[in-house]
Amino acid sequence: MSHPRQSIPSRHVAGRSLLVGLALVLSSGLAAAASSKGCDGGGFRVLGLSGSQSTTVPAASVGASFLVQGKYVQFEVDAATFGVRNYLLTGAANALDMTGGVPTPVFAAKTPDHRGATLTSGVDVDLKDTGIELIREGAQVTMKLQAKDCANGGVFQMEVARADGTATVFTHVLATHPSNPSLNAFYFDNRNFRNREGDAVPYKDTTVVVTPRVNFGNDYSSKFVGRDSPQVATRLSDANCVNAIVRRDGTVQKVSHCGLTSRWEVSSGGRMGMVFGEDATEVAPPATICTHKCQAQNQVKGRSTVLGAPFPVAPADRLAPRQ
Question: Which segment of the chain is annotated as a signal peptide (predicted)?
């Protein structure tokens, strides 16, 4: 049975307003990016709920963590922070499967640093078709998770809004398989983009210039490729992970990015998304800067150039260290 939504205390209105405004563009991006073929038969179960419904699960019924289970995707949520652990592609059969039919761990953790703030409200749950939206609030911070239960495309994003308007650092840690090293995920500098760096390629009714691209993949499946997708967020360089990447003209560029982790400073009202497959290797302009009353203006709808990714990835292009 659905519970009536709890009213939102006034201290949360600013954070909720930011997230709702941003959702107009982000939810459209998720839906557009994930092809219906990749979502065939998908749908989530969470906190004892399934099927299309919109409700609020009382805080007392939430627990310390909970599982979001889909046909193609599953992940755990830390209730106090809305950090995500053990994001997995299940390997369920699908025309757009990237896993080769094998359960494939992607991220060990996506952790927001709320600097001591916690989420304490009930959890708003919206389930519809293959999508899910989860919102939880605290005195200082509001978090929203959106996901699609699909084998490919734009499938996940997490958003933050703080009462003080300051940024939040998200730390992403890729997954390591406990027994099969070929399934260990790693970040790499995409050679297909390096070899076209500076070229103007078709995009919609104009062109866009190819710039370097960092993706993640593994050594098991040639189809498995993903990308961190920021909006109003900036990656923090890591001086402990400086890689020398050879450019197409033979010169060397220093890339300060680790092979296992990435850290992002996300503005209040901004988000970190994750895309798979062609969405991860298309050449398109960066998302527009928007945190309020955004419109769905970043949809590509198949009108971009897709450069793909090499497999296997050359050792020289794997970002190191992977630790």
Answer: 1-33
